[in-house]
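User: Quick sanity check before I run a bigger batch. Here is a single chain. Can you write out its predicted 3D structure?
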Amino acid sequence: MNRFACVCFGALLLGGCAQLGVEPWERDVLARAEMSLDAHPVEAALDDHIYFSKEATSGGRGFGGGGCGCN
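Assistant: Done. Predicted structure follows.
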């Protein structure tokens, strides 16, 4: 009985990852402008301008550190 329970539990664990990924009929929803990382491009451009004005660098908003090279 214990072996049967382990096999069933293992099958459940392995079967849980079977539906990962994007199906072809879901791609139209994910291609909408609201789903992009920058849903508001004007706001993102303003944030980029403020960032590189303060840090004396451009790009690379996704990580910490300053433009002074002290990290």
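Residues 41-55 form the longest helix (15 residues).

User: Great, the batch can go ahead then.
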